[in-house]
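Researcher: We plan to redesign the surface later, but first we want a full-length starting point. Tokens attached.
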């Protein structure tokens, strides 16, 4: 399971780097809509609201990550279940 954890960590690190790159490009180009800019201004005016929003978003991401990891494990289990059957089929052909 440690190997799987390392693979998962590498994938998460890669996703973070992609997200940071997209954020940097987004900031550089300044493609935020007027509505997004207005919402950001309102949020920044109230630091407690910003903290709440960030904490909520973090929990949402953690829940999504748990679901993705659970789905990945189910797929791996399913693959392990069917692989011996496929190998027998190939041998018998």
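Model: Full-length starting sequence:
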């Amino acid at each position: 399971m440690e190997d799987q954890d390392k693979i998962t960590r590498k994938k998460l690190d890669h996703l973070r780097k992609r997200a940071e790159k997209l954020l940097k490009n987004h900031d550089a180009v300044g493609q935020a809509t007027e509505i997004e800019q207005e919402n950001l201004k309102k949020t920044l005016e109230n630091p407690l609201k910003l903290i709440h929003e960030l904490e909520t978003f973090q929990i949402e991401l953690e829940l999504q990550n748990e679901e993705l990891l659970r789905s990945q494990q189910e797929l791996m289990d399913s693959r392990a279940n069917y692989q011996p059957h496929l190998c027998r089929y190939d041998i018998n052909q």
